[in-house]
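2024-03-11 09:14:02 INFO worker-7 job=invfold-0412 stage=load source=structure_tokens
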């Protein structure tokens, strides 16, 4: 399953956005909001995401992936501009390369007023041995 390790955060995000004022939510949506619903179906519960245009079939997959990453980064940045945002990512030991690529993209550019907390289970081999996708270059400390 792609993007393992962030599903709980996306479930919470979908729940919060689907219960929020639709006008407020529309103001937070990034340009490529349709990609969010295509790759993260739980976000289709949010009307603004469900109604957004999706890319045409046959689009370059590399570009689509980059646009997806940027759409999620932009959504989180827009939410953080509305007020402090805490993003909790649990059990990242299950994250694969796709999740680490997404997280690396999200954290390359600072997002104002966003705190990111993540958890990972450590086995006897230590933190570095538990993540199949490897730790990204933005890791600063354990």
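2024-03-11 09:14:09 INFO worker-7 stage=emit residues=142
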């Amino acid at each position: 399953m792609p993007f393992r390790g962030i599903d709980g955060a996306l479930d919470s995000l979908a729940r919060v956005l689907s219960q929020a004022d639709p006008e407020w939510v529309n103001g937070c949506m990034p340009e490529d909001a349709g990609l969010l619903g295509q790759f993260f179906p739980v976000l289709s519960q949010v009307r603004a995401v469900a109604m957004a245009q999706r890319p045409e079939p046959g689009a370059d997959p590399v570009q689509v992936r980059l646009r997806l990453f940027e759409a999620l980064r932009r959504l989180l940045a827009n939410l953080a501009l509305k007020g402090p945002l805490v993003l909790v990512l649990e059990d990242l030991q299950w994250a694969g390369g796709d999740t680490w690529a997404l997280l690396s993209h999200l954290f390359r550019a600072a997002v104002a007023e966003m705190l990111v907390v993540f958890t990972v289970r450590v086995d006897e081999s230590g933190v570095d041995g538990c993540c199949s996708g490897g730790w990204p270059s933005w890791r600063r400390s354990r």
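2024-03-11 09:14:09 INFO worker-7 stage=report msg="The first helix runs from residue 7 to 19."
2024-03-11 09:14:10 INFO worker-7 job finished
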